[in-house]
Amino acid sequence: TYVQIFVFPEMLPRLPESFVTPHWLKFIGEILRAISGVSLFALTAFLCGAAFFRRQVTSLPNLLSAFVLGEALLSLVFLSLLTLTGLQTRLTAIVLVLCALPGILRLSPGILHQLVAWQKKEISQSTSLFLDWFLLVTIVVTALGLSSARLGYDAVSYYFSQARLMAFTGLPIFTNSGDAFVVSSFHPGILFTAVIQLFGDQAARMLSWVNGLVILAAGWEIGKAIGLSARARFYFLTLMLTSTAFVDLLGDGKVELISTAPIAVALWWMIGSLQNPSPGRFLLIGSLLGFAIIARPYNIFLVPVFTILFYLLQAWPVLRKDGLKAA
């Protein structure tokens, strides 16, 4: 393709044998390195966001919220540095360490004890669904394996190629100087750039998998919040993981899942805000939805409309009965 030949010629295979000769040890080593790299990056994002949450709360929604909030903060920091000073590999590593420190200091006094207690509680509650979870894990592994076969067309043309170009140059330059479309995905794309600089291309592609798992976990918690049974929530996960609209985005190097994860987590907080409204909750909801909008600008036509409809539908019975005075 154009991008392979003129932008990244090293992507082309040097020998025809590379198509048919599997180097299994090298492949396994690269996969393990990629998993380790994206896990470290995800942990850093979580720690960055966890600095804004209470120390004693380690529920799954808070873990998800800390991760997506950390991604938003890292995106803003990396884009600012990219514009002001350039983003070199050493600077990227320093920024990640500094952003993780506040979360480490806040969570360290007892985080291990709380995580162990939470894990035991969840395991005891889900023993009866062992077979369901085994099938679900099988579907997840199969989906991830199938999704790792290729990059999507848009990723090759814009999203992933742009992130890779910025990773190698450390500068905010375009793949094609006459096409500014990639600006629309700079916020999630800069996360790809940081991961590529430190851990390589495959680790960056796995960042979409992490955000996909966040969406699935958020959907599970949303179902719990609205009173769905565990079986019904399992059906939701199965439907998601058997939908090509979702699975195709897991490994193709695009940014849609990164911009959707904050919306899914914000929806959980929106449901909770109906019973326990507070300024902190609404600040978090606004921050997550705001990042979803700047991450993919077309969300400005979707997120505000559905957010207003959500609260309006909840308030409508009261407004119809008591009028505007009830507000």
Explain this structure.
The protein is an all-alpha fold. The protein has helices at residues 2-7, 24-50, 60-84, 89-107, 111-125, 130-147, 153-169, 186-199, 201-225, 230-241, 244-247, 256-275, 279-295, 303-322. 73% of the residues lie in helices and 0% in strands.
Q: How is the secondary structure organized here?
A:
Layout (H helix, E strand, L loop, with lengths): L1 H6 L16 H27 L9 H25 L4 H19 L3 H15 L4 H18 L5 H17 L16 H14 L1 H25 L4 H12 L2 H4 L8 H20 L3 H17 L7 H20 L5
Question: What's a concise summary of this model?
Answer:
The protein is an all-alpha fold. Helix content is 73%, strand content 0%.
- Give the % helix: over 70%
Proportion of beta-strand residues: under 5%
Distance, first to last CA: 58 Å
Nearest-angstrom radius of gyration? 21 Å
Task: Give the tags.
single chain; 327 residues; mainly alpha; 14 helices; globular
